[in-house]
Amino acid sequence: MSSASPSPAPTLDRRSFLKVSALAGGGLLVGTYFRFGSSTAMAQTLPAASGTFNPNVFISIAPSGAVTLIAPNSEMGQGAKTALPMIIAEELDVSWDKVTITQGDLNPAYGRQSAVGSGSTPGNYGPLRQAGATARAMLIEAAAQTWNVPARDCTTENGTVIHQASGRRLTYGELAAKAATLPVPTDVALKDPKDFKLLGTRVPGVDNEKIVTGQALYGIDQRLPGMVYAAYVKCPVFGGKAGDANLDEVKKLPGVLDAFVLNGITGLTSGVAVVADSTWHAFKAAEKLKVQWDQGPGVTQSSVDMAKQAESLGKAAPAPALPSGVKAVEAAYHYPFLAHATLEPQNCTALFKGGVMEMWCPSQVPGSGQRLVTQGLGLAAHDVVVHVTRLGGGFGRRGSNEFSLEVATIAKKMEGTPVKLTWSREHDFAHDNYRSNGWHFLQGGVDGAGQLVALHDSFVKMTGGPGDMAGGGFPFNAVPGSQVQSSKLTGSVPTGYWRAPGDNGNTWATQSFVDELAHAAGRDPLDFTLGLLAAVPGADSPGGPAGGRGGRGGGFAPPKMVTVLKLATEKAGWGKKLPRGQGQGLAVTHTNNAYVAIVADVTVSPQGVLKIQKLTAAVDAGQIINLSSAEAQVQGAMLDGLSAAWFQKITIEGGAAAQANFNDYPVLRMENSPPAVEVHFIKSLAPPTGLGEPGLPAAAPAVCNAIFAATGKRIRTLPFTDTDLKWA
Amino acid sequence: MSNLNLNVNGTVHSVDVTDDTPLLWVLRDTLGLIGTKYGCGIGECGACTVLRNGVAVKSCRLPLKSVGTAKITTIEGLATSGKLTAVQQAWCKLDVAQCGYCQGGQILCATALLTATPKPTDQDIDEAMSGNFCRCATYTRVRQAIHAAAGSTPAISP
Ligand code: FES
Ligand code: FES
Q1: Which chain B residue has its CA at the smallest distance from A343's CA?
Q2: Which of A55, A378, A694, B149 could form a disulfide with A135 if both were Cys (CB 3.0 to 4.6 A apart)?
Q3: Is residue A152 domain-shared with residue A223, that is, in the same domain?
Q4: Chain A contact present for B61, CB below 8 A
Q5: Beta bridge mates, A585
């Protein structure tokens, strides 16, 4: 295969396609086209043997009929490796059980290769439908020419073109060579979503069999001949730098091959690398390192001080005075820092050879990892080849790619030798980009008729990173004149994207407070919330976006929220009379354009032991791609939200994270998982939203509101375990 | 350094590693059996679960010396001659895995449970699976898959 010369930007270049196709012996490449300079990268592209039809970089059809599809985005459990090719297969009209899926490496031709913000599906839905439909149109044209009939008289079925009048049939494999010689149509019709056969069905993950038999899939599983194992130790205090270290001593430890200090590389946090003949030896030697750290000014930071700072910032500007006769409700809510704690710790593998850095990256955004390496080490983009592995969890953590530059720097020093860097769990907890802490100082006003007439929020969080309050989102947009202000703590705790940024804590605070207000108004929380939704501007335009944002979504359509809220409460049997110690709670969120309502059923023993009996979710996420993974994402996101809200916090002491491993950062386990978890999707043909995140934000407030109903105890600080729930 | 014989998935391997090396790292780095995962290294997560004579144990805390002649089964050794066990089949069919990183450990733990208790109750499942957490929180389907596989032929002979 010829290698296209490196180009700064992917462009549509028909001549390149045709040239390549001639070399490949009949293959045709249209649409966008891969543009990697390195032969290693080219090796991963789809088969282009003689007679193979490659209508675009996502599809390959061999004369045998074998269909290979590329999954362009990384798989971290959200189901992208299955769902994205399903979109192609739907429009291409091939049987799902006949296709082979290949994980795409980093390649500009694949378009949006960033698996963040629940964006893989909505971002790729249009382009991948187009890719499938274009290929199908060319196969139809090839058959029509073969039979000398008009293309419009032909149709397709499961990988075969059929001439309806005569009943003649040709398989895609039989047509591949001819299709590869045809011009690429620019304007093909897409299916009417109501004719979808594959999308919306339950399709098991394409790697399931590999997962249950322990095959090598993840970054941490990479093994190359002659590979060495590295650990990289950074200052526990955020912003600290490495000085001298006992390198000579460490180099004498069992299995240690080398040890060195790394400082002064653009984008690289300074630290000490230890290279050994096994992961165990690298970890053991790293523990024996004695480094003179320059801790820097960050060492004075603590969670205790931040709480004091937040209190004075949050209360600096009091909320406007309430009209007379209005009952004031005030509450302060606080949520802590969280770690991502992906079960596969951060890691990366690299080999530097012949001027090329070849990498195996478990990354949600492999392109930004590549950029870190090119900028840090002065390499050209086409000399940094990135293979994308499966990810043992993402949750936003692997949108940061510091591990890529760490291993590349070590690999460059060890030229010719493959290096796998693995972070110990302790290192992973110490050097996260944490979910920011946050404080809400809320004030509401309820009039004599039980109407909410005032709603104000003063919000405080760590400076930097995402998660600020989107002023004007629900429920603030339901109350004219409501004010949302935001202040930032000074400090340098690194924060970043954590599943459903912002909403993951803010929705808990605001949806808990709505429940408080409902009770203060003497009204049923469902009735109260429906009343608020009716008051949002645009509430009467069905499905149309209204002004303001709800959470991290775009336009907020109150009728869609009403629909999910009614469905969830109906399915959960909302409004049951329950004895003390049992309770139901509800909460809603509009996250990443999806609408989610959750009802929680809980019991709390007189001694304060919480048991979540059931979660009932109703979700409008537009067209469902893979029902199995869509349901799993909502189930998992709800439980992830509860795991964090119930048990987890990172506290900062002496400028460093105080929690080092799962023994002091508990994760929800089977026995705390609700025995019943129901997910109901609204049937919709609207374009899909993503689903990795929307299920998360409303779970914790639904449970907190249920706890209040059961016990009269209001949880205003996370995690739940900081509140004594004993009620007798 | 010690030279030890290790019986893994029915094959005896002679390995030469430092004495304190946990079984986990011998499996992964020395024998290339990467299906056994590192998650915490302190016995909290269960990603490193293997079967020792049919009983689920955490290999990250198991110094090689203490393994002796015990038969070790890793996730790679569960399906014999290419046929998935009932537990593995249930896992595939019910599409349990999300990221999948914990699932080798979950499957081995469920296998040990079903071998000892062919028809487990929900409470049996809570107890048996409590040492294996799933960061993606796939518990709803893990429970369903264990029930689905229950009553089938025990997956391995201890
Ligand atoms: S790695 Fe052994 S229990 Fe976590
Ligand atoms: S499936 Fe991801 S940790 Fe269990």
Answers
A1: B39
A2: A55
A3: no
A4: no
A5: A600
Distance of CA A681 to the CA centre of its chain: 20
- Domain B2-77 belongs in CATH node 1.10.10.60: no
pTM: 0.93
Pick from A21-35, A264-278, A590-604: least confident: A21-35
In the block, residue with structure tokens 């429009």: A91
Residue A474 and residue A550 in contact, taking contact as beta carbons nearer than 8 Å: yes
Residue A680: inside a domain, yes or no? Answer: yes
Q: What's the CA gap between A543 and A554, in Å, rounded?
A: 13
**Residue A90 and residue A262: Cα distance in Å, rounded?**
50
Touching check for B72 and chain A: CB below 8 Å?
no
Q: Indicate if the pLDDT at residue A704 is higher than 70.
A: yes
**Predicted pLDDT at B82:** 84
Q: What are phi and psi of A237, to 5 degrees?
A: -80, 130
Task: List all residues of chain A from 201 to 260 with a beta carbon under 8 Å from chain B.
Answer: 202, 204-205, 207-209, 211-218, 220-221, 223, 229, 254-255
Q: What is the pLDDT of residues A406-435, one digit of tens each?
A: 999 999 999 999 999 999 999 999 999 999
DSSP state letter for A571: H
Rounded to the nearest angstrom, the distance between the alpha carbon of B47 and the centre of ligand 2 is 9
Whole-angstrom Cα distance, residue A421 to residue A403?
8
Query: Which atom belonging to ligand 1 lies closest to the Cα atom of B40?
Result: 4
Diameter of chain B measured on Cα atoms: 46
Nearest CB to A669; choose among B20, B78, B130? B130
CA separation (Å) from A294 to A245, A436, A493, A644?
12, 25, 17, 33
Q: Which of A576, A593, A594, A647 is nearest to A585 (CA)?
A: A576
User: ipTM, 2 decimals?
Assistant: 0.96
- Point out the ligand nearest to the CA of residue A341: 2
